[in-house]
Design a protein that fits this description.
- The chain is α/β, with parallel strands linked by helices and about 220 residues long.
- The chain has one domain: 3-Layer(aba) Sandwich (Rossmann fold), CATH 3.40.50.
- Helix content is about 35%, strand content about 20%.
- The chain is built from eight helices and nine strands.
- Strands 1, 2, 3, 4, 5, 6 and 7 form a seven-stranded mixed sheet that branches. Strands 8-9 form a two-stranded antiparallel sheet.
- Helix 6 links the parallel strand 6 and strand 7.
- The chain is globular, with a radius of gyration of 18 Å.
- The N terminus is likely disordered.
- Bound molecules: flavin mononucleotide (FMN).
- The site of flavin mononucleotide has 24 residues, from helix 3, strand 4, strand 6, strand 8 and helix 7.
Amino acid sequence: MSNQNSLSRNQFLKVVGVTLAASTLTCSGLGYAATRSPQIATPELTLEKDTTMNSRILVTYATRAGSTVEIATAIAETLSQRGFSADVKPVKEMPSLAGYQAVIVGSAIRMGNWLPEAVDFIKANQAALNELPVSLFTVHMLNTEEDETSRANRLAYLNVVRPLLNQAEEVFFAGKFDFSRLSFVDRLIAKMVKAVEADKRDWEKIKQWAKAIEI
Ligand SMILES: Cc1cc2nc3c(=O)[nH]c(=O)nc-3n(C[C@H](O)[C@H](O)[C@H](O)COP(=O)(O)O)c2cc1C
């Protein structure tokens, strides 16, 4: 939520306050418990197609609370229905790009940014990615409206990543707030910005996108 346009000044100051309080906790040694997230699975999955197409697609994702993994899986399932083989892999494991015809990279948004491991993956593989068709999907809860401000705010989520790639298809998917999957500090931040628990993922939109992407 560094994108302050999407927050009121008061909300922003509260978030800063919570972040400072979290830093103090961390320094005092209590921070580990406060910032520790519940165990979130980061599964790998392979959908193998025995076709003559010989085309394999990597769907790699970065998540904190798990909703982005489920979106990555839905994308891979749709690609599989299109006749591709698809591998779903966590980006934090820095999957190799060897053998892929196209790459789809997805990240959850935290505090206005892609997760650092997803940015690191793009940086580490910049040259190879620029030789392949690349699509980026972003999972977020704010700035989901169709007005100009909302659109500009969500486009800004890719300000760090976009300049690294010559050309990449971009899509934005509404995500999920599930407080039971957040650390104490993250839950506090979510409540400070008046987030309510909700699953806004539009599976039809996700599948339609995966059906239509050019590979
Ligand atoms: C601490 C925190 C900060 C967040 N910051 C933003 C943000 O700046 N902008 C936004 O649109 N969504 C934000 N979100 C919402 C997440 O992007 C959304 O819940 C997403 O579905 C999380 O994906 P994940 O379950 O894969 O981690 C934030 C969520 C949390 C818990």
